[in-house]
Amino acid sequence: MERILYSHSISVNSYRARLMLSLLNLEFKEISVDLLRSEQNGDSFKKINPVSQIPVLVENDITIWDSHAISIYLAEKYGEDQWLPRSLQSKAIVLQWIFFDANELNNGVGLARVHYKFKIGGNGETFQERGKKAYSILNDHLANRDWIELNRPTLADVSCFPFCSVSKDAKIDIDEYPNLRNWMERFSHLENFVPFRKIEHK
């Protein structure tokens, strides 16, 4: 089976897809798309993804873009019930945190990171406050639990971890959120875990 991930090392969303592939111990080939040179906007890449975004997963004749769509696909196809439960209620509980990441964490931490690290767009302080609010929600939620939901690592944890791992880029002190910091430490000890910016291939 041919499995290709189009990504870039500076992309948090690419990291999320790469992390899911690694946790599932799946072999893949990685092709870097140079965001700094706007390669994603070129005609050749638009044939792969018309919205000009990474990551993109190509698996044989299937092409999937968006890191959450990729993670859900991989979890359901290869993870059995471990990462995304089959039961409707449990699945909904996990999915709500995936959407929390796509909205609260992305629109807070993600935009603050882009503003401060890459000097792009908007009001950094506003983004930062959104990020702090999202971190506080997670920190409070993790006060009496080891994992975000279901008493085990799930796609909820995989989805939220990447934007928590770039807190320094967003100029947010993760030590102000001890429950969140401890959860990140537990997550980093999962089998086949890979950190952000460390690109590894099976």
From TrEMBL:
Q: Where is the GST C-terminal domain?
A: 87-202
What InterPro entries is this protein classified in?
Glutathione-S-Trfase_C-like (IPR010987), Glutathione-S-Trfase_C_sf (IPR036282), Glutathione_S-Trfase (IPR040079), Glutathione_S-Trfase_N (IPR004045), GST_C (IPR004046), Thioredoxin-like_sf (IPR036249)
Q: Which residues form a coiled coil?
A: none
- Give the GST N-terminal domain ranges: 1-82
PROSITE patterns named in the record? GST_CTER, GST_NTER
Q: Which GO terms describe its molecular function?
A: transferase activity
Name the Gene3D superfamilies on file: 1.20.1050.10, Glutaredoxin
Q: Which family does it belong to?
A: Belongs to the GST superfamily.
Its recorded name reads: Glutathione S-transferase
